[in-house]
Amino acid sequence: MTLQDDLAANPPCHPRACAIQNCLTRNGFDESKCQKQIDALYECCNAFYEKNGESASTVSCPKASLLRLKMEQRKKAT
After folding, report:
1. What are the cysteine partners in each disulfide bond (predicted)?
2. Most exposed among 14, 45, 63, 77, judged by the fewest C-beta atoms under 10 Å?
3. Strand, helix or coil at 52?
4. 18-29 pLDDT per residue, tens
């Protein structure tokens, strides 16, 4: 699925949130093995907030302010 498909899902970004859960389950909940899926969810959530505004919400994404913090932390960690 593309970013646009995932943004159009109900709820938005849900396929990417499910991909993280599936990855964690397959890998004994070792988050380090699911970084690609986490990055993909954050990409979708960031696009969701850019499109709908900072006050928008979807169960698949952290609040906009927390998302930005998490994205910044991940950027610094690399």
Report:
1. 13-44, 23-34, 45-61
2. 77
3. helix
4. 999 999 999 999
Residue 30: CA count within 13 A, CB half-sphere:
5
Tokens of 62: 């952290």
In this prediction, the residues of the chain whose per-residue pLDDT falls under 70 are none
Contacts of residue 61, Cβ cutoff 8 Å, sequence gap at least 6: 12, 13, 17, 41, 44, 45, 48, 49, 67
Give the C-alpha distances (Å, rounded to integers) separating 21 from 8, 12, 14, 29, 34.
20, 16, 11, 9, 9
Give the CA dihedral 61, 64, 69, 73, nearest 10 degrees: 40
Cα separation, 24 vs 72, in Å, equals: 22
pTM: 0.93
